[in-house]
Amino acid sequence: MTSTVLKGGRILDQTGERSGDVVVDDEAGLIVEVGPDASADRTLDASGCLITPGFVDLHVHLRQPGNEAAETIESGSRAAARGGFTAIVAMPNTTPCMDDPAVINEVIEFGRTALCTIKPSAAISLGRDGEQLAPMGELAALGVRMFTDDGTGVQDDLFMRRALEYAGSLSTDDGVPIVLSQHCEVTALSQGGVMHEGEWSSRLGLGGQPSEAEELMVMRDIALARLTNVRVHFQHLSTAGSVAMVRAAKAGGLPVTAEATPHHFSLTDACCADYDANFKVHPPLRTQADVEAIKQGLRDGTIDAIATDHAPHTPDTKERPFDQAPPGMLGLETAMAMAMAELDLDLAALLPMLSWQPAAIGGLGDRHGRPVEVGNAANLAVVDPDHRWTVSGADMASKSINTPFEGRELTGRVRHTIHDGEVVVEDGEATR
Amino acid sequence: MRDLLSIDELDATELTNLLDLAENFAAVQKRDVPKVPALRGKTIVLAFFEDSTRTRTSFDLAARRLSADVVNFSASASSLTKGESLRDTVETISAMGIDAIVVRHRSSGAPHQVAKWTEAAVINAGDGWHQHPTQALLDSYTIREHFGDIGGKHIALCGDIAHSRVARSNAQAFATLGAQVTLVAPRTLLPSSLDGWPVQVADRLDDIIGDLDVAYMLRIQNERIGDARFPSVREYRTLYGLTVERAKRLRPDALIMHPGPMNRGVEIDPEVADDPRSVVLDQVSAGIPVRMAVLFSAVGPGQFEGEAA
Question: Among A349, B4, B255, B292, which has the highest number of CB atoms less than 10 A from its own CB?
Answer without folding.
Answer: B292
